[in-house]
From TrEMBL:
Lipoprotein among keywords: no
Protein's organism: Amycolatopsis rhizosphaerae
Keyword Transcription regulation: yes
Segments traversing the membrane: none
RNA polymerase sigma factor 70 region 4 type domain location: 111-163
PANTHER family to which the protein is assigned, alphabetical: ECF RNA POLYMERASE SIGMA FACTOR SIGM, RNA POLYMERASE ECF-TYPE SIGMA FACTO
Protein known as: SigE family RNA polymerase sigma factor
Record domain RNA polymerase sigma-70 region: where: 28-88
Keywords, comma-separated and alphabetical: DNA-binding, Sigma factor, Transcription, Transcription regulation
Length: 183
């Protein structure tokens, strides 16, 4: 941890505050990053980059009550910025979905939804994660992404259409069992 100018070996109060926030929220932010990118190692990279940005901005943050939303937005923007880089290898969707013979809601179904989610374009994926994983309203999602509510609605509809196409006729059943939510 960085030391402040108050004396050797002493840490600043905001360092301690950030360390507490990190301990409480890093796992949740990493899970969000995983939902966005579909790879735990890449999710760890996104989370680390986002937390570094957050750490650098920490002393300037005035609204401590909105830190969760700010941190989540930082993860989203880090993910989207990374996807714009031309050198980044893009995932290619598979031609066919694997057959599953398990009950909806099991780990296989969850993996199937996550794989299908990886075929959704990044901005649509961000909308779906915020709307259906974090259970944010259309307005809250628009505020986090810095776009209009109409954009959130259209991105959500397009993303769900891609998921429907990838998951086939069992879409509603799988999605409901996996997320606990219907449409």
């Amino acid at each position: 941890m960085a030391t402040d100018r108050s004396g050797p070996g002493r840490t600043s109060s905001w360092d301690d505050e950030f360390a507490r926030f990190f301990g409480e929220r890093a796992h949740s932010l990493r899970a969000t990053a995983y939902l966005l990118c579909g790879d735990w190692h890449h999710a760890e990279d996104i989370t680390q980059a986002a937390l570094l940005k957050l750490y650098l901005a920490w002393p300037r943050l005035d609204h401590r009550d909105a830190l969760d939303a700010y941190a989540r937005k930082t993860v989203l923007r880090t993910f989207l910025a990374e996807r714009r880089r031309p050198w980044r290898r893009r995932e290619q969707p598979a031609e066919t979905l694997p057959e599953t013979g398990t009950e909806p809601g099991g780990p296989e179904q969850r993996l199937l939804v996550l794989k299908a989610l990886s075929a959704v374009p990044p901005k649509q994926r961000a909308v779906l994660v915020l709307r259906y994983w974090h259970d944010l309203s259309v307005e809250e999602t628009a505020a986090e992404l810095g776009c209009s509510t109409g954009n959130v609605k259209s991105q959500s509809a397009r993303g769900l259409a891609t998921l429907r196409q990838r998951l086939g006729p069992q879409f509603h059943e799988i999605l409901e069992a996996t997320t606990g939510k219907g449409r």
